[in-house]
Amino acid sequence: MLSAKSLFQEILDNDESFRLFCSIAASGESQGGWENARIAALVPQSARELAPKIARHGADEDKHGRIFHALMNRRGLAPAEVPADTDYTMLLERHGIGLAHDKLKSEQRLTVEDIVTYLAHSRVTEQRASEQMELLRRHFGDHPGIGRAVRMISQDEDRHLAYCHEELLRLASAGHGRAIRRTLRACALAEIRVYRDVSLAVMAHMGRILGWSRAKTATLAAAIHAVYACERAAGWRRMVSLKMPEQRNALGDPAPPAPELA
């Protein structure tokens, strides 16, 4: 019977599929680390208090990238080339979501409106990351090979999501509520399309590596389209709501050192 656990177990058990999975994850996390580091360096003077938190966010993403590389190293695997159709971060940028890399590569200070865009984009994508890592933690949190890494990354993603909620609520109370709502909605609707397309691409690549039958591939594709239909109908709304998190100032402390997984 197909299930999230059985599918990931199949990917985990095969070196080539595990290599591709970790390479895709590491690439996305490293890209997020670079983006957050640039945003931290370019925040406007009026939002300088956010810079250490944004930098902490970026340091966490870099750490996650190193963790995925360490998981590959432990199995003697070299990173794989990441197929363009699985590059979630870059596909979101092409849809105009988040801050353009051209802007981040410049030395011009960002505006408060740019910070709203960054936080709204992060609130949506961190919702997805938190949910995905919670799924992995539920099924593989005690796994001897990847359990510690899964628990660590999952905890970080929950903190990132809490931080986004808190900072967006603070900006909303400062008069940016309408812009936040508009940006969150646009980000969420674009993200669910990109997530569907990336999911289909990842499953297609995994299917070729693992030799899945046409019937299995079709069943998985149908399930991905069904998830998208539910998200397009109403599920996207979970990505745009804001509430004060239980964990306040979630990124207020310096980033801890990267763990040793070897």
Walkthrough of the structure:
With 262 residues, the chain is an all-alpha fold. Helices cover 71% and strands 0% of the residues. It has 8 helices and no strands. It has helices at 4-13, 15-42, 51-74, 88-94, 101-105, 112-140, 147-210, 214-233. Helix 1 (4-13) packs across helix 2 and helix 2 packs across helix 7 (147-210). The chain is globular, with a radius of gyration of 18 Å.
The SSE order reads HHHHHHHH
Characterize the largest beta sheet: strand count, sense, and whether it forms a barrel: none
Radius of gyration: 18 Å
Mean pLDDT: 94
**What characteristic shape results from the CA principal axes?**
globular
Helical region count? 8
User: Any low-confidence stretches, pLDDT <50, length ≥5?
Assistant: none
Helix-and-strand structural type: mainly alpha
How many β-strand stretches? 0
Estimated helix fraction: over 70%
Strand percent estimate: under 5%
Oligomer: single chain
Could you give the distance between the termini? 34 Å
